[in-house]
Specification:
This protein has about 425 residues and is an alpha/beta fold. Helix content is about 40%, strand content about 15%. Helix 4 (about 90-100) packs across helix 15 and helix 8 (about 195-210) crosses helix 12 (about 315-320). The longest helix has 26 residues, at about 135-160.
Length: about 425
């Protein structure tokens, strides 16, 4: 297991709401983008890992999604592995493609994530999110949260003398309720404020305004984030990742392959770790980060830029603590100090993150890789930061107190 693994090429589509595009179409666009990023024929790819979580639920395309989508784009006959790991599907596909080269099985592999989440049937769209949890347990929990929320609304209405349902409000997935509950716990324990959550969201919206492939390309101020409608206290709409579609891909290769097909823009993968959650008290992100740091012989202080899983603004605060970028409980003040801004101590989510770049479930982990490779190559334009070492953290689903699956990758500019 001593084989060095490199990212030879990356590709990504614009994220957004595209009812007219199919999974096959998005697959083709991501492959075209990856091909344009390097001087390499896709025929050199020896095996592929295809990430998708919702095609079965939305269009009944189960079981052989990768074979269907890739064969429609002239990639067939090679081993194709279908990957479904909720929001961590893309990063899990990357891990699979990395593992195969690390083990010496192949010299060139493909990881590709494709997802269409947006649906005009909002109820159907939102019901898909609960599939990333233990459905039996989550259903009971949601009912309890709804009752809690109603009690809070009534108390607030009685105190302020207003109608219970007056004002803006919007629909949301079960995960927003879970994130909101975690945020309230963090606020109570460490003093984290709603304004600090808004700082995260405003920062990421500003970053995405510099990213032409992002779903949202407009900046927001802290005040605008706070004034947006409440989804589940303390989260406003702007603090929650949007629903959208898109695709991203990475071609990985061995050192032997890189010598045969030289590419000065190739990026070394220093570590790739996949971990699963537990119903017991557990810090899955901290476990995964520790393993990645050990594998790479690096530590949090060595990381120059990071993309972390910010399905909500609180998610970013939680993950920068778990990655060791600041002490647990200090993520809010750390963010408020501008340490995570483009010109800060450690820029976080330079792409705009899930919050603003967008979160097409199966593509998100690979979109993180795309961004970090772009940064390490010095090709990020107005959002460019100075970086040699980068980290990606991507979680998926929920088991017990944390994520069901979580990946951490560490990359290095050579």
């Amino acid at each position: 297991m001593s084989e060095k693994v490199y990212i030879y090429s990356v590709g990504m589509t614009k994220f957004g709401k595209f009812l007219e595009k199919s999974i096959k179409k998005f697959t083709g666009e991501a492959l075209k983008s990856a091909k344009q990023d390097c001087d390499l024929s896709l025929k050199e790819i020896e095996a592929a890992w295809f990430s998708n979580s919702g095609w079965g639920m939305s269009e009944n395309q189960h079981s052989i999604r990768g074979q269907v989508a890739l064969s429609a784009n002239r990639i067939d006959k090679i081993p194709i592995t279908n990957v479904e790991n909720a929001c961590a599907s893309g990063s899990t596909a990357f891990h699979g493609a990395w593992t195969a080269i690390k083990a010496g099985l192949y010299d060139c592999t493909l990881a590709i994530g494709v997802e269409k989440v947006y649906n005009e049937d909002r109820k159907k769209m939102m019901e898909g999110f609960i599939a990333g949890t233990d459905v039996e347990v989550t259903t009971r929990m949601i009912e309890q949260l709804k009752k809690w929320a109603e009690r809070q609304k009534k108390k607030k209405a009685e105190k302020e003398g207003v109608e219970v349902n007056k004002g803006k409000k919007g629909g949301h997935s079960a995960f927003m309720d879970l994130y909101a509950m975690a945020a309230r716990t963090h606020m109570k324990k460490y003093g984290t404020t709603q304004r600090q959550l808004a700082v995260v969201a405003a920062k990421n919206h500003t970053n995405s305004s510099l990213n032409p492939l992002a779903q949202y390309t407009f900046p927001m101020t802290v005040e605008q984030v706070l004034d947006d409608y409440e989804v589940a206290y303390p989260l406003t709409r702007s603090m929650c990742a949007p629903v959208g579609d898109g695709a991203a891909a990475a071609i990985l290769c061995s050192e032997k392959f890189l010598k045969e097909f030289p590419n000065p823009r190739a990026i070394l993968v220093r570590a790739s770790v996949l971990r699963s959650g537990s119903w017991k008290k557990d810090d899955i992100a901290k476990r995964a980060a520790a393993a990645a740091y050990e594998m790479s012989a690096l530590g949090p202080k060595d990381i120059d830029v990071a993309e972390v899983h910010d399905a909500t603004a609180f998610g970013e605060i939680h993950q920068i603590e778990q990655m060791g970028f600041c002490p647990v409980g200090e993520g809010g003040p750390f963010t408020e100090s501008r340490a995570t801004a483009l010109d800060g101590k450690i820029p976080i989510n330079t792409s705009g993150g899930l919050l603003s770049r967008g979160h097409p479930i199966g593509a998100s982990g690979l979109a993180q890789i795309y961004e970090l490779v772009t940064q390490l190559r010095g090709e990020a334009g107005e959002r460019q930061v100075k970086a040699k070492i980068a980290l990606a953290e991507n979680g998926g689903g929920n088991i017990g107190p944390g994520e069901a699956a979580l990946c951490v990758h560490i990359l290095e500019k050579k």
